[in-house]
């Protein structure tokens, strides 16, 4: 493992998680839970097979993941990185405007930013579900009792469905573009969207 060779907590942390692809591997495990190698690789378009294997070995050696019967799992130490990942996501969000239209996208990558953006602004109402269609696999946003939970897949009975390119859907969910002006599809109860959007906008 390469090292900065510095007696500094930040430098030592970067010795372990600062290599290219490492944090994205952790992103996949945070979002999708314990995963087999092939599933991890599908969530990391562009990574070479040997590089993924190397990174997993380094993460395992540093106590961030465990591997058992081909399944990779974050350890408690690995889960401690979640607030770091959220902070990087918040910092990087304004930079998405500079990403080219042909950039890879998978819908489950939205889970962390949506968890940051959305809230339950009508907690006394019955629980509801919003289906988000932005990629090959839909996401479900469950809202109720003051909490928001995001899962891959479709709900049995969505109260509303929003769909379209992620570049158009995300600004609506984030409250930066009004639904009436957005070039997205929407079916169902618009109150679900208002319930979830940042309060200042809703």
Quickly list its features.
38% helix, five-stranded mixed sheet, 9 helices, single chain, 202 residues, alpha+beta, elongated, three-stranded antiparallel sheet
Note down, in words, how this protein is organized:
The chain is α+β, with helices and mostly antiparallel strands. It contains nine helices and eight strands. It has helices at residues 9-17, 22-32, 37-42, 49-61, 76-79, 82-92, 111-117, 166-173, 190-196, and strands spanning 35-36, 65-68, 71-74, 128-133, 139-144, 147-152, 160-163, 185-188. The strands form two sheets. The chain has a five-stranded mixed sheet, with helices on one face. It has a three-stranded antiparallel sheet with strand order 1-3-2. The longest helix is centred in the first third of the chain and has 13 residues, at 49-61. The chain is elongated. The protein starts with 8 loop residues before the first helix and ends in a 6-residue tail after the last helix.
Principal-axis shape = elongated
The biggest sheet, with number of strands, parallel, antiparallel or mixed sense and barrel status, is: 5 strands, mixed
Q: Count of DSSP helices?
A: 9
Tell me what portion of residues adopts beta-strand conformation. Answer: 15-25%
N-to-C CA distance: 49 Å
The proportion of residues forming helix, as a percent range, comes to 25-40%
In which order are the strands of the major sheet placed? 6-5-4-7-8
- Class derived from helix and strand content: alpha+beta
| Cα radius of gyration in angstroms | 19 Å
**Got a strand count?**
8
Which ranges are low-confidence, i.e. pLDDT below 50, for 5 or more consecutive residues? none
- In round numbers, the mean pLDDT is 94
Q: Helix and strand succession?
A: HHEHHEEHHHEEEEHEH
